Amino acid sequence: MAIIGKLLAGRRAGETGLAWNRPGLANGTEFSLTSPDFEHDAHLDIAHASKRVGGRDHSPALSWSGAPEGTAQYLLVVEDVDVPMPKPVLHCAALLDGSLNQLPANALQAGTSEPGVRILRSMLGRGYMGPAPIRGHGPHRYVFQLFALAEPLDTLAGKAVDQARPKLVLEAARATARARIDGLYERP
Fold first, then answer.
1. What letters, b where the CB count within 10 A reaches 16 and e where it falls short, cover 104-143?
2. What is the pTM of this model?
3. CB 29 within 8 A of CB 148
């Protein structure tokens, strides 16, 4: 499998397709998003990687500050920008209550009962899906993006937002501010 990663080494989705750059989400000011589990642009621990590669699929703890007053909800999006595809892969999406300013570790699991957390559909299923890049492809950047929303997203096209396709959620969301932290993971 390492040979495939090496053959695809030059192919990366890049940042252009990130939620961060979508018209409705690229607006507003920036605020601070941090994690006690990793520094910005530092490597994620194996515990945060996919079970398929020996990890535990545990989402890292996150905390934020400086979001605008009156934030109704936050939209959290985790994407892999280094996947050898035309667009980044959406690993996790969740709506968070506007009163929150942190998430404990492992709060993004499918079926979570964490107060104020609504897990949405992603390209890979529901809940946090840890990194599992192709062996030999090099380091992948996992971008944790948090968007402050002035208006809550509850329904889209007559469906509960929990059932909506990720593309519809990202198109409907309108951010007043945004924050991000990038973690790296590479398979040996």
1. eebbbbeebebeebbbbbbbbebbbbbbbbbebbbebbbb
2. 0.92
3. no
